[in-house]
């Protein structure tokens, strides 16, 4: 990239007020995720918020590319295409948040160099880096690769409906960039754990606990056996965790519990580890005679395992960060993102290119104002470098 780093920084510093105006508008459009199982009225309300944000985003991105809107069961997905030169780069961002509507009394607050708001960090701040960076490249007369941007409405609930569009876009991509937030210290993300979710349904047989308990089969006891089996699959040294974190069962203290249900979270750095645990959970055999156990679900996101090409992509970003006056390292994180899908498809993927801040998913979620311009400049300069990506 031929542009002077100081000139790049100066541009983003000068245009920061316009970016903040856009960010404040987008954060003010509350967009909690809309799971398909919601009752009709809450579902209608969350879809209204997602549609309003999608319409606003259409207007912003239509200035830089061709926008297609796809109505999914979980909300509108926007696909933005802009022609460039050289390779095809896929940019991933989501505009849904975990924050229920009305859970923040004040939707935008600036205090001591921090900006607070629902989704400002995860990940509306990073999403708006994209038009900001592309605008810079256009205004500076700089080349960029062919760009496909996906703005999804359901990442926070596992990309239930948008996954197919992500995988389809990945088939044409030579590299993928994810605008999720970086590590807390500012490092980019080159590895993420795979994420699995299992629902385990246990069936027993009811009986009077006091009169003839021997006729019953206690589903809660069977579920307890399953829990012990599940946690025995953990390998903390390998980073594999198994969390049976929700459970319910029975309906009265004087009745042998005829049913129970639990949900299990799985995290693993490698696909081999995830498959090992999944096979062990599905291979469970009931301990109590007459009990039945059904394991549903599975791996929701494959691990984002680094490859030589993805690390080469990281090195380009590290070079550009250094030119801009700050350093980034290769971070690893236990949570998943849509980058898990692209990396598993063989597309070199770099994550964590969003704003520096903290407290994602919390009432104190925030971004650091002074770091916004340098991080957006990093994205712009990286896109410029990717014209020659091979």
Brief digest:
The protein is of the alpha/beta class and 390 residues long.
Describe the 3D structure.
- With 390 residues, the protein is α/β, with parallel strands linked by helices.
- It folds into two domains: 5-192 and 304-388, Aminopeptidase; 194-301, Alpha-Beta Plaits.
- It is 34% helix and 24% strand.
- A six-stranded mixed β-sheet has the order 1-2-6-3-7-14, with helices on both faces.
- Strand 1 and strand 2 (75-82) form a beta hairpin.
- 44% of the residues are buried.
- The mean pLDDT is 96.
Number of helices: 11
**Rounded average pLDDT:** 96
Strand order of the largest sheet: 1-2-6-3-7-14
What CATH calls the topology of the largest domain is: Aminopeptidase
Radius of gyration: 23 Å
Q: What does the oligomeric state look like here?
A: single chain
Number of beta-strand segments: 16
Overall domain count: 2
Helicity range:
25-40%
Q: What kind of sheet is the major sheet? A: 6 strands, mixed
* The CATH fourth-level homologous superfamily of the largest domain: Zn peptidases
Series of H and E elements: HHHEEEEEHHEHEEEHEEHEHEHEEEH
CATH top level class name of the largest domain:
Alpha Beta
In percent, how much strand structure appears in the residues?
15-25%
Distance between the termini: 15 Å
Specify the structural class.
Answer: alpha/beta
- Give unreliable regions as ranges: none
CATH architecture of the largest domain: 3-Layer(aba) Sandwich
Topology, pairings included?
Layout: H1 5-14, H2 16-28, H3 40-61, E1 66-72, E2 75-82, E3 88-94, E4 109-111, E5 114-116, H4 120-127, H5 129-139, E6 146-152, H6 163-170, E7 175-178, E8 188-192, E9 194-203, H7 219-231, E10 241-249, E11 259-268, H8 271-282, E12 292-301, H9 308-324, E13 330-333, H10 339-344, E14 349-350, E15 357-358, E16 366-368, H11 372-385
Parallel strand pairs: 3-6, 3-7, 7-14, 8-13
Antiparallel strand pairs: 1-2, 2-6, 4-5, 5-16, 9-11, 9-12, 10-11, 15-16
Helix pairs in contact: 1-11, 5-11, 9-11
């Amino acid at each position: 990239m031929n542009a002077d780093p100081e000139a790049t920084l100066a541009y983003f510093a000068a245009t920061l007020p316009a970016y903040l105006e856009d960010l404040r508008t987008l954060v003010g459009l509350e967009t909690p995720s809309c799971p398909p199982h919601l009752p009709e009225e809450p579902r209608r309300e969350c879809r209204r918020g997602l549609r309003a944000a999608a319409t606003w985003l259409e207007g912003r991105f239509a200035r830089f590319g061709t926008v297609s809107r796809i109505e999914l069961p979980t909300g509108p997905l926007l696909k933005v295409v802009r022609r460039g030169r050289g390779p095809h780069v896929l940019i991933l961002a989501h505009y849904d948040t975990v924050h229920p509507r009305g859970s923040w009394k004040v939707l935008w607050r600036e205090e001591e160099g921090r900006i607070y708001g629902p989704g400002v960090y995860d990940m509306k701040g990073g999403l708006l880096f994209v038009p900001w960076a592309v605008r810079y490249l256009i205004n500076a007369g700089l080349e960029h690769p062919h760009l496909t941007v996906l703005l999804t409405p359901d990442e926070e609930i596992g990309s239930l409906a948008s996954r197919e569009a992500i995988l389809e876009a990945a088939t044409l991509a030579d590299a993928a960039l994810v605008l999720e937030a970086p590590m807390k210290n500012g490092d980019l993300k080159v590895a993420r754990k795979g994420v699995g979710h299992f629902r385990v349904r246990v069936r027993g047989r009811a009986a009077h606990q006091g009169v003839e308990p021997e006729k019953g089969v206690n589903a809660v006891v069977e579920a307890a056996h399953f829990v012990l089996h599940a946690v025995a699959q953990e390998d903390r040294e390998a980073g594999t965790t198994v969390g049976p974190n929700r459970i319910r069962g029975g309906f009265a203290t004087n009745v042998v519990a005829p049913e129970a249900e639990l949900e299990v979270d799985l995290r693993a750095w490698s696909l081999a580890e995830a498959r090992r645990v999944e096979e062990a959970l599905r291979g469970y055999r009931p301990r109590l005679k007459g009990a039945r156990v059904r394991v549903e679900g599975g791996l929701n996101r494959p691990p984002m395992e680094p490859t030589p090409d993805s690390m080469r992509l990281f090195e380009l970003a590290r070079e550009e960060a250094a030119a801009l006056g700050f350093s980034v390292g290769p971070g690893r994180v236990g949570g998943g993102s849509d980058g898990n899908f692209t990396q598993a498809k063989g597309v070199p993927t770099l994550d964590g290119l969003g704003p520096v801040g903290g407290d994602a998913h919390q009432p104190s979620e925030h971004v650091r104002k002074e770091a916004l311009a340098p991080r957006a400049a990093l994205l712009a300069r990286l896109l410029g470098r990717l014209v020659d990506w091979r």
